[in-house]
Amino acid sequence: MRFVHEYRKASGVNLLAQQIHRTVTKPWTIMEVCGGQTHSIISYGVDELLPPEVTLVHGPGCPVCVTPLEIIDKAIIVASRPDVIFTSFGDMMRVPGSMKDLLTVKAEGGDVRIVYSPLDALNIAIQNPKKKVVFFAIGFETTAPANALSLLYAKKEGITNYFLLCSHVRVPPAIRAIIQSPGNTIQAFLAAGHVCTVMGYEEYIPLAQQFRVPIVVTGFEPIDILSGVLRTVRLLEEGKYIVVNHYKRSVTREGNKEAKKILETVFEIVDWKWRGIGVIPESGYSLRPEYEKFDAEKIFNVENIVAQESEVCIAGSILQGAKKPVHCPAFGTQCTPDHPLGAPMVSSEGACAAYYRSKRSVL
């Protein structure tokens, strides 16, 4: 557990909290973009250690939560086919579509399997040449390179029964959309360390400069988050609008060059719809034309599926930081992890799930 316990030490946590209390002189609102950071904040009570002047709000950094409803419906249609083995990470199994989820498809007889990497799905395709094997490729820039790599291998080896159902999204355009949204109150951002490990942080620099918002790259443990908040508060107090890397044990300015090269080979940047938010320009990845033969949407003719979001669920407002889970009238009553109305209640990185598990019932 080295490199974990040292970032959870109570002495370090308390010291950082005291420094934040001494530093802040006016109210500031900071968004942590990543759902993993949100879960750490709520689970460890990091937000309760902060002075009242510092408000943390939760961003759209949960890849499961922002996967469009119609993509879930497409997955359900494809997974229900008798000629398909549908593979997915476990956190997508109970995300509600319009009528049901993937776990229900499995219970009804669909061949739906949990895998731990796209290479697991690729091996299933090799072992089952008479079946069409589909991998549900979702996530931010963190998971996209591995999914792209599986297609490079499939193409090289002539594997023709392996396909991706893609819903990959990009963080910087989402930050831009949040800043430009009507009524935005976010004054600074904590950027996700794992995304920046792949992509670096160069794309955030023009955002900080153009919109005059400091952006601090940080990790996921209590000391990571509190040190990131402290640096952010200092930048805000000093009126400095720059990007600071506070996760140097993993992140460099340029990121992982090989992973980025793989992304550019397989994917192209497109406008993309985020669940509960809408279309954000240049915020998604789509397979390039030379990889269309691996595109499950095209192969199974589900490109034109549309879906209507629940009128009760306020996931969109939560994902944009406009509201917190406890603002939702359905939270903990109509919407629970056993019977979720929206993805943030069932995802392992969802803000609603974090609040529910930590029994947060008050603002």
- Major β-sheet profile: 6 strands, mixed
Gyration radius, rounded: 21 Å
Summed up, the domain count is: 2
- CATH C-level class of the largest domain: Alpha Beta
Order of helices and strands: HEHEHEHEHEHEHEHHEHEHEEHHH
Count of DSSP helices? 14
> CATH homologous superfamily of the largest domain - what is it?
HypD, alpha/beta domain 2
Strand order of the largest sheet: 4-3-5-6-11-10
Structure, described:
With 363 residues, this protein is of the alpha/beta class. It folds into two domains: 1-311, HypD, alpha/beta domain 2 (Rossmann fold), CATH 3.40.50; 315-357, no CATH class. The protein contains 14 helices and eleven strands. The strands form two sheets. The chain has a six-stranded mixed sheet with strand order 4-3-5-6-11-10, sandwiched between helices. Helix 2 (35-44) runs parallel beside helix 14 (351-357). It starts with 9 loop residues before the first helix and ends in a 6-residue tail after the last helix. The mean pLDDT is 91.
